Protein backbone atom coordinates (compact mmCIF):
# COMPACT_ATOMS: atom_id res chain seq x y z
CA UNK A 1 0.00 0.00 0.00
CA UNK A 2 1.34 3.43 -0.94
CA UNK A 3 0.97 6.48 1.26
CA UNK A 4 1.79 10.07 0.33
CA UNK A 5 2.90 13.14 2.18
CA UNK A 6 5.28 16.06 1.91
CA UNK A 7 7.52 17.55 4.55
CA UNK A 8 11.08 18.73 4.87
CA UNK A 9 14.04 17.74 6.97
CA UNK A 10 15.60 21.08 7.71
CA UNK A 11 18.88 20.18 9.40
CA UNK A 12 21.63 22.06 7.52
CA UNK A 13 23.99 19.90 5.50
CA UNK A 14 26.64 20.79 2.95
CA UNK A 15 25.63 19.74 -0.56
CA UNK A 16 28.04 17.13 -1.85
CA UNK A 17 28.59 15.43 -5.17
CA UNK A 18 27.60 11.81 -5.07
CA UNK A 19 30.26 10.13 -7.21
CA UNK A 20 33.49 8.96 -5.62
CA UNK A 21 36.54 9.24 -7.84
CA UNK A 22 38.57 6.49 -6.20
CA UNK A 23 41.44 4.41 -7.54
CA UNK A 24 40.81 0.65 -7.25
CA UNK A 25 43.53 -1.05 -5.24
CA UNK A 26 44.44 2.07 -3.24
CA UNK A 27 44.28 2.60 0.52
CA UNK A 28 43.09 6.10 1.51
CA UNK A 29 44.17 7.38 4.91
CA UNK A 30 44.53 10.49 7.04
CA UNK A 31 43.25 13.84 5.82
CA UNK A 32 42.59 12.61 2.28
CA UNK A 33 39.65 10.49 3.47
CA UNK A 34 37.41 13.30 4.73
CA UNK A 35 35.69 14.39 1.49
CA UNK A 36 34.99 10.77 0.61
CA UNK A 37 33.71 9.89 4.09
CA UNK A 38 31.43 12.95 4.08
CA UNK A 39 29.71 11.67 0.94
CA UNK A 40 29.36 8.15 2.38
CA UNK A 41 27.94 9.58 5.62
CA UNK A 42 25.38 11.60 3.66
CA UNK A 43 23.90 8.50 2.05
CA UNK A 44 24.11 6.41 5.22
CA UNK A 45 22.12 9.14 6.98
CA UNK A 46 19.34 8.71 4.44
CA UNK A 47 19.48 4.94 4.86
CA UNK A 48 19.19 5.41 8.62
CA UNK A 49 16.09 7.61 8.28
CA UNK A 50 14.29 4.75 6.51
CA UNK A 51 14.25 2.79 9.78
CA UNK A 52 12.46 5.61 11.59
CA UNK A 53 9.70 6.04 9.04
CA UNK A 54 9.06 2.35 9.49
CA UNK A 55 9.01 2.72 13.27
CA UNK A 56 6.31 5.40 13.28
CA UNK A 57 3.55 2.83 12.83
CA UNK A 58 2.62 3.78 9.28
CA UNK A 59 2.43 7.55 9.81
CA UNK A 60 4.46 10.12 7.95
CA UNK A 61 5.79 12.06 10.91
CA UNK A 62 9.47 11.17 11.02
CA UNK A 63 9.54 11.95 14.75
CA UNK A 64 13.09 11.59 16.11
CA UNK A 65 14.42 11.08 12.59
CA UNK A 66 13.96 14.80 11.95
CA UNK A 67 16.68 15.41 14.51
CA UNK A 68 19.20 13.21 12.69
CA UNK A 69 21.78 15.33 10.82
CA UNK A 70 20.67 14.40 7.33
CA UNK A 71 19.95 16.86 4.53
CA UNK A 72 18.48 20.29 4.11
CA UNK A 73 15.09 20.54 2.43
CA UNK A 74 14.68 16.91 1.45
CA UNK A 75 11.01 16.51 0.53
CA UNK A 76 9.30 13.19 1.20
CA UNK A 77 7.32 12.10 -1.84
CA UNK A 78 6.13 8.57 -1.10
CA UNK A 79 6.54 5.74 1.39
CA UNK A 80 5.67 2.09 0.94
CA UNK A 81 4.99 -0.83 3.22
CA UNK A 82 4.47 -4.40 2.08
CA UNK A 83 3.85 -6.76 5.00
CA UNK A 84 4.13 -10.05 3.10
CA UNK A 85 6.94 -10.29 2.26
CA UNK A 86 8.07 -7.37 4.40
CA UNK A 87 9.55 -4.38 2.61
CA UNK A 88 9.53 -0.73 3.65
CA UNK A 89 11.04 2.45 2.36
CA UNK A 90 10.56 5.96 1.03
CA UNK A 91 11.08 8.11 -2.03
CA UNK A 92 12.25 11.69 -1.56
CA UNK A 93 13.42 14.66 -3.63
CA UNK A 94 16.50 16.76 -2.85
CA UNK A 95 16.40 19.98 -4.93
CA UNK A 96 19.67 21.27 -3.44
CA UNK A 97 21.72 18.32 -4.70
CA UNK A 98 19.41 17.49 -7.64
CA UNK A 99 18.80 13.93 -6.48
CA UNK A 100 15.83 11.56 -6.23
CA UNK A 101 16.14 8.96 -3.46
CA UNK A 102 14.76 5.44 -3.29
CA UNK A 103 15.65 4.42 0.28
CA UNK A 104 14.99 0.89 1.57
CA UNK A 105 14.71 0.02 5.25
CA UNK A 106 16.99 -2.75 6.49
CA UNK A 107 16.44 -5.77 8.68
CA UNK A 108 15.06 -4.90 12.11
CA UNK A 109 15.81 -8.27 13.68
CA UNK A 110 19.37 -9.54 13.63
CA UNK A 111 18.24 -13.16 13.70
CA UNK A 112 16.59 -12.56 10.32
CA UNK A 113 20.01 -12.01 8.80
CA UNK A 114 21.09 -15.43 10.02
CA UNK A 115 17.90 -17.06 8.78
CA UNK A 116 18.42 -15.35 5.43
CA UNK A 117 21.89 -16.89 5.22
CA UNK A 118 20.22 -20.26 4.58
CA UNK A 119 19.08 -19.22 1.16
CA UNK A 120 17.00 -20.55 -1.69
CA UNK A 121 17.78 -19.21 -5.15
CA UNK A 122 15.32 -17.60 -7.56
CA UNK A 123 15.90 -17.26 -11.31
CA UNK A 124 16.63 -13.60 -11.95
CA UNK A 125 17.18 -11.80 -14.22
CA UNK A 126 15.36 -13.81 -16.85
CA UNK A 127 17.33 -14.32 -20.04
CA UNK A 128 20.73 -14.21 -18.29
CA UNK A 129 22.25 -17.69 -18.38
CA UNK A 130 22.83 -19.13 -14.92
CA UNK A 131 21.91 -15.95 -13.02
CA UNK A 132 20.33 -16.63 -9.63
CA UNK A 133 19.46 -14.39 -6.67
CA UNK A 134 18.39 -14.85 -3.06
CA UNK A 135 14.68 -15.64 -3.20
CA UNK A 136 13.78 -13.72 -0.03
CA UNK A 137 15.56 -10.57 -1.21
CA UNK A 138 13.97 -10.89 -4.64
CA UNK A 139 10.42 -11.41 -3.39
CA UNK A 140 10.56 -8.51 -0.92
CA UNK A 141 11.87 -6.23 -3.70
CA UNK A 142 9.34 -7.41 -6.25
CA UNK A 143 6.46 -6.81 -3.83
CA UNK A 144 7.14 -3.07 -3.73
CA UNK A 145 8.63 -2.58 -7.18
CA UNK A 146 5.39 -1.67 -9.07
CA UNK A 147 4.85 1.27 -6.70
CA UNK A 148 8.47 2.33 -6.97
CA UNK A 149 8.45 2.08 -10.76
CA UNK A 150 5.38 4.31 -11.11
CA UNK A 151 6.62 6.97 -8.73
CA UNK A 152 10.24 7.07 -9.89
CA UNK A 153 9.19 7.34 -13.52
CA UNK A 154 6.99 10.27 -12.58
CA UNK A 155 9.74 11.93 -10.51
CA UNK A 156 12.31 11.35 -13.26
CA UNK A 157 10.05 13.16 -15.73
CA UNK A 158 9.38 16.02 -13.32
CA UNK A 159 13.10 16.41 -12.54
CA UNK A 160 14.92 15.47 -15.76
CA UNK A 161 18.34 16.66 -14.55
CA UNK A 162 18.29 14.79 -11.23
CA UNK A 163 20.26 11.65 -10.44
CA UNK A 164 18.21 8.69 -9.17
CA UNK A 165 19.83 7.24 -6.04
CA UNK A 166 18.89 3.76 -4.80
CA UNK A 167 20.23 3.15 -1.29
CA UNK A 168 19.90 1.01 1.82
CA UNK A 169 21.59 -0.53 4.82
CA UNK A 170 21.70 -4.30 5.47
CA UNK A 171 18.72 -6.01 3.80
CA UNK A 172 17.85 -2.57 2.43
CA UNK A 173 21.10 -2.68 0.46
CA UNK A 174 20.07 -5.93 -1.22
CA UNK A 175 16.67 -4.42 -2.05
CA UNK A 176 18.37 -1.29 -3.42
CA UNK A 177 20.57 -3.35 -5.75
CA UNK A 178 17.69 -5.45 -7.08
CA UNK A 179 15.28 -2.53 -7.51
CA UNK A 180 17.96 -0.45 -9.25
CA UNK A 181 18.62 -3.30 -11.67
CA UNK A 182 14.90 -3.80 -12.29
CA UNK A 183 14.50 -0.09 -12.97
CA UNK A 184 17.56 0.03 -15.25
CA UNK A 185 16.22 -2.88 -17.32
CA UNK A 186 12.78 -1.29 -17.60
CA UNK A 187 14.07 2.23 -18.32
CA UNK A 188 17.32 1.86 -20.22
CA UNK A 189 17.00 5.37 -21.67
CA UNK A 190 17.69 6.89 -18.22
CA UNK A 191 20.00 4.18 -16.88
CA UNK A 192 22.95 6.59 -16.75
CA UNK A 193 21.12 8.70 -14.14
CA UNK A 194 21.10 5.81 -11.64
CA UNK A 195 23.47 5.52 -8.68
CA UNK A 196 23.41 2.78 -6.02
CA UNK A 197 24.75 3.13 -2.46
CA UNK A 198 24.65 0.23 -0.01
CA UNK A 199 25.99 -0.22 3.51
CA UNK A 200 26.57 -3.62 5.09
CA UNK A 201 24.88 -5.31 2.14
CA UNK A 202 24.61 -9.12 2.16
CA UNK A 203 25.48 -11.09 -0.96
CA UNK A 204 22.54 -10.90 -3.36
CA UNK A 205 23.19 -13.56 -6.00
CA UNK A 206 25.62 -15.96 -7.60
CA UNK A 207 28.57 -15.26 -9.88
CA UNK A 208 26.60 -14.99 -13.18
CA UNK A 209 24.29 -12.50 -11.46
CA UNK A 210 27.22 -10.48 -10.08
CA UNK A 211 28.87 -10.41 -13.50
CA UNK A 212 25.66 -9.27 -15.19
CA UNK A 213 24.99 -6.62 -12.54
CA UNK A 214 28.55 -5.36 -12.99
CA UNK A 215 27.96 -4.94 -16.74
CA UNK A 216 24.76 -2.96 -16.18
CA UNK A 217 25.41 -0.87 -13.04
CA UNK A 218 28.84 -1.79 -11.70
CA UNK A 219 30.36 1.58 -12.55
CA UNK A 220 27.44 3.35 -10.87
CA UNK A 221 27.42 1.39 -7.60
CA UNK A 222 29.22 1.94 -4.29
CA UNK A 223 29.08 -0.96 -1.82
CA UNK A 224 30.36 0.26 1.55
CA UNK A 225 31.56 -2.27 4.16
CA UNK A 226 32.90 -1.56 7.63
CA UNK A 227 35.50 -3.47 9.59
CA UNK A 228 34.29 -6.87 10.88
CA UNK A 229 30.61 -6.49 9.93
CA UNK A 230 29.27 -10.03 9.58
CA UNK A 231 26.47 -9.30 7.11
CA UNK A 232 28.68 -8.79 4.00
CA UNK A 233 29.90 -12.35 4.68
CA UNK A 234 26.36 -13.71 4.28
CA UNK A 235 25.10 -15.85 2.66
CA UNK A 236 28.42 -17.76 2.62
CA UNK A 237 29.93 -18.26 -0.83
CA UNK A 238 31.65 -21.48 0.24
CA UNK A 239 28.33 -23.30 0.60
CA UNK A 240 25.86 -21.62 -1.73
CA UNK A 241 28.03 -19.99 -4.38
CA UNK A 242 27.02 -16.40 -3.64
CA UNK A 243 29.28 -13.60 -4.83
CA UNK A 244 29.34 -9.84 -4.28
CA UNK A 245 29.34 -7.26 -7.06
CA UNK A 246 31.79 -4.31 -7.10
CA UNK A 247 32.66 -1.56 -6.34
CA UNK A 248 33.36 -2.35 -2.68
CA UNK A 249 34.80 0.39 -0.49
CA UNK A 250 35.99 -1.20 2.73
CA UNK A 251 36.41 1.06 5.77
CA UNK A 252 39.36 -0.50 7.57
CA UNK A 253 39.30 1.15 11.00
CA UNK A 254 37.52 3.61 13.25
CA UNK A 255 39.75 6.42 11.97
CA UNK A 256 38.01 6.06 8.60
CA UNK A 257 40.92 4.79 6.52
CA UNK A 258 39.47 2.84 3.61
CA UNK A 259 40.46 0.58 0.77
CA UNK A 260 38.97 0.92 -2.72
CA UNK A 261 38.69 -2.69 -3.80
CA UNK A 262 39.79 -3.91 -7.20
CA UNK A 263 37.03 -4.77 -9.65
CA UNK A 264 38.05 -8.36 -10.21
CA UNK A 265 35.90 -11.31 -11.28
CA UNK A 266 36.12 -12.54 -7.69
CA UNK A 267 35.69 -10.55 -4.47
CA UNK A 268 38.81 -8.62 -3.52
CA UNK A 269 40.19 -10.48 -0.52
CA UNK A 270 41.58 -7.23 0.92
CA UNK A 271 38.03 -5.87 1.34
CA UNK A 272 35.55 -7.12 3.93
CA UNK A 273 36.85 -10.61 3.40
CA UNK A 274 40.17 -9.64 4.98
CA UNK A 275 38.28 -10.51 8.18
CA UNK A 276 37.77 -14.26 8.65
CA UNK A 277 34.05 -14.87 9.04
CA UNK A 278 34.64 -16.40 12.47
CA UNK A 279 36.04 -13.03 13.64
CA UNK A 280 33.08 -10.96 12.41
CA UNK A 281 30.04 -9.85 14.40
CA UNK A 282 26.98 -7.64 14.68
CA UNK A 283 28.55 -4.62 16.42
CA UNK A 284 30.16 -3.21 13.27
CA UNK A 285 26.95 -3.77 11.31
CA UNK A 286 25.23 -1.01 13.30
CA UNK A 287 28.18 1.39 13.35
CA UNK A 288 28.38 2.91 9.87
CA UNK A 289 29.37 6.43 10.96
CA UNK A 290 27.54 5.63 14.19
CA UNK A 291 24.38 4.68 12.30
CA UNK A 292 21.74 3.41 12.67
CA UNK A 293 21.73 4.97 16.14
CA UNK A 294 19.98 2.22 18.07
CA UNK A 295 21.03 3.68 21.42
CA UNK A 296 19.33 7.04 20.88
CA UNK A 297 16.06 5.70 19.50
CA UNK A 298 13.77 2.88 20.54
CA UNK A 299 15.32 -0.48 19.65
CA UNK A 300 14.96 -0.64 15.90
CA UNK A 301 17.40 -3.47 15.43
CA UNK A 302 16.73 -6.29 17.84
CA UNK A 303 17.78 -9.88 18.21
UniProtKB/TrEMBL annotation:
Keywords associated with the record: Signal
Classification via InterPro entries: AB_hydrolase_fold, Fungal_lipase-type, Sec_MonoDiacylglyc_Lipase
Signal peptide boundaries: 1-17
Fungal lipase-type domain sequence ranges: 101-237
Transmembrane portions of the chain: none
Superkingdom of source: Eukaryota
UniProt keyword Cell membrane present: no
Protein's recorded name: Fungal lipase-type domain-containing protein
Organism name: Coemansia umbellata
Lineage: Eukaryota, Fungi, Fungi incertae sedis, Zoopagomycota, Kickxellomycotina
Amino acid sequence: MLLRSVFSLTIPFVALAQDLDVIPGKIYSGNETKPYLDVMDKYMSLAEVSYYFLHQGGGFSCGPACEVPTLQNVVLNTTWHSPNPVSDGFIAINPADKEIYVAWAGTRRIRSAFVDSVAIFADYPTGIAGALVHEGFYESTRAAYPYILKNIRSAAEDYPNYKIIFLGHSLGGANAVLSALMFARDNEYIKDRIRVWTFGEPRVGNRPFAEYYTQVLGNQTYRITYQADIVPHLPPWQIFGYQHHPLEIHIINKAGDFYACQNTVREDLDGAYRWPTIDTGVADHVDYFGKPDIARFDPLIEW
